[in-house]
Design the sequence.
């Protein structure tokens, strides 16, 4: 029975992960870090919502409430259209790095599952979009933390178009956002099915990564295949493309 940390639980992917964890018989405790209360967690005995305002800082008083956790699904994020470039970097890069470094001490082997994105680049060029460049830098820096924290296992998961229309859970989408999603998602499913990541299967794969306890060579044997790359290094690092997400979810 595991204890998992979640962030971004009022958003599209995070809400789906929280729902999956609540319904999982193998997860005993869920610690949600959030700036505000999370409606989906209300009345759920195995969920503790910890109101946390500064995602660059993890004081002992907070870490003590996370004792026993062996994984984190990092779903906290924002669109580049909602903030400027420097704010986007803080939210996408700085927050994730600070969390991974702080959580590494919670367990001898800690799985940090970072929701990245399709088409990210760790070797950006002049015309690489902001989101692809910053997420790529975050992936690389998370992997580099393994040299300082040998028990830290990094999973960079790269969904494409995240489709929540068949199981909407996130809090507070605007009427316009919902209207657009209800019209765009069916078109994507029809014209580009392999580029779509339904929230339910995505959550299933993310939690599978978070709960994985096998040694590196066994992970290679169990998950290896199209869309999954095992990173170089003595400790575990995995990159899962959208093709791999869909394959592992049986889509």
Sequence:
């Amino acid at each position: 029975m595991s204890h998992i940390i979640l962030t971004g639980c009022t958003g599209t992917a995070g809400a789906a992960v929280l729902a999956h964890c609540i319904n999982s018989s193998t997860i005993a405790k869920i610690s949600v870090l959030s700036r505000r209360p999370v409606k989906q967690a209300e009345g759920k005995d195995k969920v503790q919502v910890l109101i946390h305002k500064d995602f660059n800082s993890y004081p002992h008083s907070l870490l003590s409430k996370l004792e026993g956790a062996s994984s984190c699904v990092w779903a906290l994020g924002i669109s580049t259209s909602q903030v400027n470039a420097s704010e986007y970097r803080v939210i996408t890069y700085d927050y994730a790095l600070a969390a991974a470094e702080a959580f590494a001490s919670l367990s001898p082997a800690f799985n940090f599952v970072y929701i990245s994105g399709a088409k990210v680049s760790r070797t950006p060029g002049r015309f690489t979009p902001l989101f692809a460049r910053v997420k790529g830098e975050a992936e690389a820096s998370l992997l580099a933390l393994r040299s300082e924290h040998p028990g830290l296992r990094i999973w960079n998961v790269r969904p494409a178009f995240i489709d929540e229309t068949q199981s909407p859970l996130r809090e507070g989408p605007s009427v316009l956002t919902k209207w657009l999603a209800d019209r765009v998602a069916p078109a994507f499913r029809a014209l580009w099915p392999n580029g779509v990541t339904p929230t339910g299967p995505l959550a299933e794969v993310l939690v599978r990564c978070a709960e994985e306890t096998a040694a590196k060579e066994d992970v290679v044997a169990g998950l290896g295949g199209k869309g999954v790359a095992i990173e170089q290094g003595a400790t575990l690092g995995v990159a899962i493309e959208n093709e791999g997400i869909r394959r592992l979810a049986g889509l």
